[in-house]
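Try it yourself: sequence plus S-adenosylmethionine, in.
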Amino acid sequence: MTHVYVVGFGMGPHQLTYEGAKALAAADYVLAARKSDDDGLLEVRRRICTEHGLELVEVADPERDRDDPADYPGAVKAWHAARVDAYGKELAARGGTAAFLVWGDPSLYDSTLRVLDRLGERMDLTWEVIPGISAPQVLAARHRIVLHEVGRPVHITTARRLPEAIASGQRNIVVMLGSERNLEGLRELRDWRIWWGANLGAAGERLVAGRVGDVLPALCSAREAAREADGWVMEACLLRAPGRKDAS
Ligand SMILES: C[S@@+](CC[C@H](N)C(=O)[O-])C[C@H]1O[C@@H](n2cnc3c(N)ncnc32)[C@H](O)[C@@H]1O
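Structure, out:
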């Protein structure tokens, strides 16, 4: 029987929870994807392994077809299937207690739990999830805001699905998985309020808040500054339609 801890480690090693550290102490090794020869996110996981005296087992991440946005779900499905095979081989060969180190929390935009669901169908495997601090939580903390108005909902979506969310009437939206390409879309939301953060928890952390039309140039510069500081950029934001209350 192989056991797996899926450990959310927040926005970096400094945000690993006490419960996460206890799970790592009980693990024999960590499995992690290597996405490129120069994989900065793998290096973060390596630091955690070094700090906790754990072997890091690198698994080459299968190629993902990013050239055909029309078949995004198909490309992701094929990529997940290849990941299942790659992790399955390693877990079957090593057994024992493994850990996966998940950026933020495993419940948000992360495929580890889907991979384990699939693996559980084909091998003798148990797993448990240790929650981590997610990007929206750190964003809210840095801006000292509540993500929704009193008793109102917050919608969490991806930058690619933001237009769809607005068209369906969402007016208080956390946006993740943004890229430079998505900044253009913000120009149409001039009167919305934004609370934005890049590289939260990292040395290059940048925060911008205000009316979109007023702060967009500052946001673009902050984005570049974050990339320069850390060599990568990840961003999240809360967008609120005009006429709604301030975030508090
Ligand atoms: C693949 S998802 C992983 C999210 C993660 N599971 C969580 O709980 O936040 C990656 C997205 O999370 C957000 N994100 C992750 N780390 C971030 C950071 N340090 N600063 C800002 N946003 C971050 C960005 O929207 C990024 O595109």
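One thing you can check immediately is this: Residues 11, 103-105, 108-110, 134-135, 176-178, 197-202, 234-236 surround S-adenosylmethionine (CB under 6 Å).
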